[in-house]
Amino acid sequence: MKKIWLLFMLTVLLVSGPAAVGQAEPAKIKLGSDLITTQFHALIQGKRVGLVTNQTGVNSNGVSTITLLAQDKTLSLKALYAPEHGIDGKASAGAYVKSTIHPTLRIPIYSLYGETRMPTADMLKDIDVLLFDLQDIGSRTYTYMSTLNYCLKAAKANNKPLIVLDRPNPVGGEIVEGPVLKDPYLSFVGVDNLPMAHGMTAGELALFFNRKIGANLTVIPMAGYTRSMVYQDTGLTWIPSSPRIPDLDAVFGYMATGIGEGTGIFQSDFRWIGGKGIDSYRYATLLNAANLPGVLFVPDPRGSNGGVKLVITDVHAFNPAKTGLYALAYAHTLTPFPVPKSTGKNIVMFDKIWGTNKIGEYLEKGYSPQQIEAEYAEELAAFYVLRSQYLIYGDQPYQPTAPITSPTR
Q: Which of 82, 103, 148, 218 could cross-link 87 (Cys pair, CB 3.0–4.6 Å)?
């Protein structure tokens, strides 16, 4: 058996070269942060500006948005606001982040992952407009877009306009997958009724969120971007978005491997998934037989844990959320782990991540991943229709002529 898998691994290495790392000639795009300082500069000229950002907030040339605004003599940069992981992106996941003062600009850096996760009235009192510039990774559970949602609510409550400087969805704008989150499972890893993979940019998500909020929202779109682009197509350099997302391999593996919270099924570097009691070779055989697009699975036992390494062979075809569902369901067939259960108002993290308690129920009933997909297909199709109202980009490179505004109420 192991000899067969050694031959398979050699085949994987041969077929997963350029496609796996996106070595196709990239297209160049302009970000919202490029256009706010050029084409749409009038929106911030003469204003006292607050900026929600971190180390990912750079323009297409790699220049920090903080620097661009601080050097702009036509406006006054009054405050910074930092999400989970802090202004430099170095704090561990879930770690408390304190507010502080910028060492050279001597302006406040308000933490939105400390005493509060929503800007307070005091944090907003000295600004005229709030800008948002953070790079997402395309998963509902990644908290930067949760911070966007909370900023919209704060902007509405405090009568402040919010401008989103748009950025790509790194796993693309076409994959929409997973059960749609139900209201009882709303949390900071799921702030709205989204599936696991929403296929939307930060700007599109802002428009979607704002249907319930009604803030004074403006989106500065990207130029040259299309829905089919993954990050490798954009010509941009990936900046580690958090300590455990250092590169695009981790970005693409995030939803495919980080879905077993509390079950004993765990990930490593978002490239491997497994757990105790799993036969690595049977696991890989099951997953490869499913013919999931754009990925191959290599058996990779690690000590007492069995598991598989993901080898992404086609970044455009790969469906990370679907892959995660299959990986979890097949793991349960090999080692029937106990499923964490929510009780009353005590919602377990497993259900928060999936946005429902149904996935746990289906696993316990022995449903195949195909049966689970069929269970949420109707609601996912309805979301797909709703989502279409808030999309900015299509199949042709987008060339903005004006900012995009959202109705207020």
A: 82
